[in-house]
Amino acid sequence: MSWLTPEVIDILFAVFQAVVILLVAVIAGALLSFVERRVLALWQDRYGPNRVGPFGSLQIAADMIKMFFKEDWIPPFADKKIFTLAPAVAMGTVLASFMVIPVTDTWGVADMNIGILFFFAMAGLTVYAVLFAGWASNNKYSLLGGLRASAQTISYEVFMGLALMGLVAQAGSFNLRDIVEYQAQNLWFIIPQFFGFCTFFIAGVAVTHRHPFDQPEAEQELADGYHVEYSGMKWGMFFVGEYIGIVLISSLLVTLFFGGWHGPFDLLPQIPFIWFALKTGFFIMIFILLRAAIPRPRYDQVMSFSWKFCLPLTLLNLLVTGALVLLNTPAAVN
Amino acid sequence: MEFAFYFSAGIAVAATLRVITHTHPVHALLYLVVSLMAIAMCFFSLGAPFAGALEIIVYAGAIMVLFVFVVMMLNLGRATAEQERRWLTPRAWLGPSVLAALLLVELLGILFHQPGGAMIKGTLVDPKEVGVTLFGPYLLAVELASMLLLAALVAAWHLGRQDKE
Questions:
Q1: Contacts with A95 (C-beta within 8 Å, 6 or more apart), sequence order
Q2: Number of Cβ pairs closer than 8 Å across A and B?
Q3: Which of B69, B124, B132 should we substitute to test contact with A (largest number of A Cβ atoms within 10 Å)?
């Protein structure tokens, strides 16, 4: 076994990590569709899917079999190339964002010093999925959904970035590992960056097109918006992509504001993965609870809330944080 | 690193060529997005990930979305593609491209005759250095750019204003 040098083992382990994180993200996303339906039903005093398998747990298998064997139909009036490209963009960009998330001390795909910016870059590219799907379908409901989605995503991404800049100024790094370490030594960012947390959470919900920000696919008005012409696995990729987006935003919230893999008060440092999974699960549940609890606002309300309330709030937050950081920094010695 | 640079640079050139030659506006914009991402990859391979990420966030993620948005609203159909095809006759582009190709040959000749320029070393420029440089020696340029943006903002507000009677 002469080729099995330490470097090769390192590379193999890194590849193994990446594959495991990818698979966990996809499987968690797929399972979420079942979990969401069950939990929503519980909160709304219904049964939910409970026929297939114990407690309906095989419903997901039934859904997958249906989705895989459905005819993969491309409407004759659609732009075939872009129609096929859109779902791949939807899923690919979200999965690529998982690259920068540090799961535990030793687990994580890429340790980039521009971590957060890479996430924003991928979030910026996600718009194209909806935009192209809406346009390529050549359907007025799809186009309206695509237009709504792109306007909404651009507006919310503006302050999504600004919401995190206060946190970056405090931690002094874009690197997510450094941010987690900073939180372990000081406070978790939920306390000093409370407004940053609120605005980032709202923006996260809006960017994943979840309730109450699901205007792009509002059933009552747009008959499902940008993916109305999709079927089979192409639709499945949009569907699973949305759930993976929820997992992504939840794990980012945990990493950025809730100390990542550390437990509260440094409890039980032996189980970093469990802490991370528990906290991420908590935020996923909040996402689902939001869907159960809040009605959908009107579209112009969504836009004016973004520009007139959230953007000034994040700017103020950044200003105050910057002033405090400057106040606490000893004067630079040239 | 050098291979990564030339590979992404080649993709950028090819994609940009397709932007110009494609007759379908939305497909051409898609190629432009690819070209911008290839340029971002160039920055990454040169060791400037901050610039690369900003390139994607600002150009591919925001400005190009607005371009695509507008083109979609215009609903350009087959007629525009036909018109483009009529405009893109070889007679129109052959002369300028021959001349530009001559210039390219000249540039390549000079590049290959100059001995040993700076090679791609793969040193990493982290965001902090970029910030220190921007707000140190280049402070004036940053302020000027911000004033320009403010002027654009005011102009946009003026154009979009609704007069209430």
A1: A22, A25, A26, A244
A2: 73
A3: B69
What is the model's pTM?
Answer: 0.84
Q: Which of B56, B73, B124 sits opposite A125 (nearest CB)?
A: B56
Judge contact between A33 and A63, C-beta under 8 A: yes
Which distant-in-sequence residues (6+ apart) come within 8 Å of A58 by Cβ? A52
Residues of B in contact with A156 (CB under 8 A): none
- B72 interfacial to chain A (CB closer than 8 Å): yes
Helices A311-328, A194-207: axis angle to 10 degrees equals 140
CB-CB neighbors (< 8 A) of A124 in chain B: 56-57, 60-62, 65
The single-letter code of the amino acid at A183 is Q
For each of chain B's 165 residues, which pLDDT tens digit applies?
A: 778 888 888 999 999 988 888 877 888 888 998 999 899 988 888 888 888 888 888 888 888 888 888 887 776 667 777 777 777 777 777 888 899 999 999 988 888 877 666 666 667 777 778 888 888 889 999 999 999 999 999 998 888 887 776
Count CA atoms within 13 Å of residue A73 on its CB side: 11
Q: Name the region of A45 (left: φ>0; alpha: ψ -120 to 50; beta: rest).
A: left
Alpha-carbon distance of A178 to A163, in angstroms, equals: 18
Among B30, B57, B126, select the one facing A113 at the smallest CB separation: B126
Q: How confident is the model at residue A334, as a pLDDT?
A: 45
Q: Say whether A150 and B65 touch across the interface (CB within 8 A).
A: yes
What are the pLDDT digits (tens) for A249-299? 999 898 888 887 887 777 777 778 888 888 888 989 888 888 888 888 888
**Buried b or exposed e, range B76-98, using 16+ CB within 10 angstroms:** eeeeeeeebeeeeeeeeeeeeee
User: How far apart, in whole angstroms, are the C-alpha atoms of residue A196 and residue A192?
Assistant: 9
Omega before residue A212 within 30° of 0, cis? yes
Residue type for position B101? A
Task: Choose among B30, B49, B57: nearest Cβ to A124.
Answer: B57
Interface mutation target, options A93, A127, A153, chain B, most CBs of B under 10 Å:
A127
Quick check: B127 and A113 CB within 8 A? yes
Q: Which of A79, A84, A114 is nearest to A99 (CA)?
A: A114
Q: Does A125 touch chain B (CB under 8 A)?
A: yes
CA closest to B71 among chain A residues:
A135
Asked if A115 and A100 count as a contact pair (C-beta separation under 8 A), the reply is yes
Query: Could you say which DSSP state residue A296 is in?
Result: P
**What region, left, alpha or beta, does residue B47 occupy, with left being phi > 0 and alpha being psi -120 to 50 degrees?**
left
Burial of A295 (0-12, 13-18, 19+ CB in 10 A): exposed
